[in-house]
Amino acid sequence: MWRYSLRRLAGAIPTLFAVMTAAFFMMRLAPGGPFDRDRMLTPEIEASIRQAYNLDEPLVVQYGIYLSKLLRGDPGPSFKYQDYTVAELIWNGLPVSLRIGMTAIALALVVGAALGIVAALRQNSLFDHAVMAVAMIGITVPNFVMAPVMSLVIGVYLRWLPAGGYGGGSLRNLILPTVALALPQVAYVARLMRASMIEVLRSNYIRTARAKGLPERLVVGRHGLPAALLPVVSYLGPATASIITGSVVIETIFGIPGIGRYFVQGALNRDYTLVMGVVIFYGSLIIVLNLVVDLVYGLLDPKVRYD
Predict the structure, then answer these.
(1) Inter-axis angle of helices 171-201 and 225-246, to 10 degrees?
(2) Pick from 45, 262, 78, 257: which is nearest to 166 by CA?
(3) Which of 70, 196, 304, 307 is the most exposed place for a label (fewest CB within 10 A)?
(4) Is the pLDDT reported for residue 106 higher than 70?
(5) Mean pLDDT, rounded, of the chain
(6) Could you give all domains of the chain from N- to C-terminal order, each with its CATH number?
(7) pLDDT at residue 33 above 70?
(8) Of 147, 170, 186, 183, nearest to 99 (Cα)?
């Protein structure tokens, strides 16, 4: 398993390099610059600032300088957040995004899997059709529509929960963004779990377990659930990375100081180093989580071996 993990990580380096290169040149080729929104500067001061950040060099030279610093573990300073490095901003926002993201993915897994299992056991019943209809709505309605509606109705009109803000990590402030972030994932997990469980329950070894007289809860829980979880586990790898670092809409709507909000502000302000740092972090997280998913496969499916 260790040799397999090392091979996967080594093979992921060219992929991460390609993503980093594409992001670097796409950011530089976009209209505008990091200091365009500042007050009018004299040509001398603007030239001095550009020289300080190596922005007066050709793009290839800028890329080489950035890559050499990155290999030394220095993603550079932020162009807009004064006195902060990119690493400091990412590590400041990571606990917030991690807390909301992991809570949302846990909620999606528990609720979505439970709904999918019950729907599969009651296939073609009224409950099954209701769950699939709600899941389809959850998939088709994006969270950038659902989040403002929840904030407006629950936070502004009903005043049950705060409409926005982090509140120092208060539970009341985290409920709405966590639920809004988890709703689409609940829908996906429920549909995947239902389809997978229906297929597993028709397998020969499930018929054998039932023929032996095992209780239905053991047939479903001990024999059916591990195999039915495989497609869900495969989906949760990239979904977890996307939720943790890609919840840019939710964090912006609710005013959550996480990585996603920094990414949006960095893109709007042309904060090249901050956007690059988030892209590299996001790509690395996807690679690691996909590796974890493959390893979990080996634990759930005894036929999978990584020798």
Answers:
(1) 150
(2) 257
(3) 307
(4) yes
(5) 80
(6) 89-256 (1.10.3720.10)
(7) no
(8) 170
Distance from the Cα of residue 297 to its chain's centroid: 20
Q: How many C-alpha atoms does 4 have within 13 Å on its Cβ side?
A: 11
Query: How many other β-carbons are positioned within 10 Å of the β-carbon of residue 300?
Result: 14
Contact yes or no for 118/131 (Cβ under 8 A): yes
Tens digits of residue pLDDT in 196-254: 888 888 888 788 878 887 787 788 777 788 778 878 877 877 777 667 655 677 888 88
**Spatial separation of the C-alpha atoms in residues 304 and 307, rounded to whole Å:** 10
Give Cα separations from 211 to 54, 208, 221, 225 (angstroms).
73, 5, 16, 18
Running DSSP on this structure, what letter comes out for residue 40? P
Q: Is the model more confident about 28 or about 104?
A: 104
Locus of tokens 């972090």 = 281
Angle formed at CA 146 by CA 257 and CA 117, multiple of 5 degrees: 105
Where do runs of H (alpha helix) occur along the chain?
Answer: 2-29, 43-52, 59-71, 86-121, 126-140, 143-150, 171-201, 204-211, 216-218, 225-246, 248-254, 259-268, 272-300
